[in-house]
Amino acid sequence: MSFEKEILKRRTFGIISHPDAGKTTLTEKLLLFGGAIQEAGAVKNNKIKKSATSDFMEIERQRGISVATSVLAFLYKDKKINILDTPGHKDFAEDTFRTLTAVDSVIVVIDVAKGVEEQTEKLVEVCRMRNIPIIVFINKMDREGKDAFDLLDELEQKLGLIVTPLSFPIGMGYDFKGIYNIYEKNLNLFSGDSKKNIEDTIAFDDIESPELEKIIGTKAAESLRNDLELVHGVYPNFDKKRYLAGEQQPVFFGSALNNFGVRELLDCFVEIAPTPKPKMAEERLVKANEKDFTGFVFKIHANMDPKHRDRLAFVKVVSGTFERNKPYLHVRHNKNLKFSSPNAFFAEKKEIVDISYPGDIVGLHDTGSFKIGDTLTEGEILQYKGIPSFSPEHFRYINNADPMKAKQLNKGIDQLMDEGVAQLFTLEINNRKIIGTVGALQFEVIQYRLEHEYGAKCTYENFPVYKACWVDPKDKKSEEYMEFIRVKQKFLAKDKRGQLVFLADSFFSLQMTQQKYPSVKLHFTSEFN
Ligand code: GDP
What we know:
The protein has about 525 residues and is α+β, with helices and mostly antiparallel strands.
């Protein structure tokens, strides 16, 4: 198959949701359509449970599961579909943000009873910042939940989406009769008694036909007609161009658990979802169909076996083909590297692969030369944009608890930070190290891994910080900036890339500082130009 055809075959996306909305269940059903797995239960739920905080082995085990499900690929209707896993747990939100730099589109799963939840809001905001095309799947229609129109309103108001329903439910919960598929113009009935997964699709072009009464009853027929009239009156028609530009978001309804409405979602997805998109580098825009290989690391996973400290770096192929045993330039190190056993991912397995195409994810064994955001090319000096650090939520001093193991500790901290487990800040005034994390769970993970993988011991000490703000002065030589540096010295630190960061100890002090030094901009992310 030609290179161009391989590109057009690929759909690389992520499923995002608040925990428990049904992401794992939906993933599993999608894989079933691809024939990639034989039975339900094959996709491991990689939720990090609250109870795990006190059980390190449990965290490790769960992290291990998330390696296996980091990328799931399957074939459907001659399309190669790559699903990138995004942890729903908020302590791992940063991992999800980074994964979103490697997807070409997303499906957002919403629980019909809960509507738009906190994690969904944050994740969708990031997608919208980057104009990532979004399809919404409203799940659990077999349960009582919110009214469909209210939910559509909520999507518009809380998430700022411009929605267009492509299917519409007939009743819900006990009265759930099925779905009218606006996109395909057919009726899909939910088998009433068993509420099991046999679905019946009936072509239904003319919604005015009296046949409708016969099939779903007078009352339901009437209300469906009214609903559809309202849908046509209120919501814009589906426009693929606008969807692809991130300006309009189609909505589907269904029940993942009952495998209901999932085929409709998938059929529409393979038709409309984007093929591998061009990606912006510092230097230029890189198109998928360029001959030369380029790609970037968006995730690094530590080996589960502490005796082998090698890691798996996940590389998204942006352009060209990635080939086994061919030398590629590691741009940051200015060094050529060859990979003898790159991994590809299929269903829930990984296997060695000779060639990968744009949109694909390759897993590379690494002994510590990669960090998140690194670019690989065939020689061009290129740095992909769009992997910013976000301000952590929790901050602690990290202290060495075993003076004999200082080297090990530093190496361990270094490598864990490269993996993106947390962020390291070094105080300007005394070089003390501060770890910043998105969730409290990471502190325990770090402590455990330092000990078991690097033989180092650490303790923590509280350090009250409200937010880390990346410092962006208008003029580095201005009086105002000099004064800022002098007065705020105690609160200044360098991040891992050497960028200056202001650690504000409260919302109030942040505001005061910004007012006093208006020409020194303070950003909550590390990428701002
Ligand atoms: P995740 O945290 O988003 O991955 O959610 P899961 O897929 O693990 O689902 C959370 C819970 O909701 C599980 O108990 C599922 O069985 C249940 N669930 C998922 N989809 C449906 C659905 O369509 N209907 C009902 N009633 N329950 C569902």
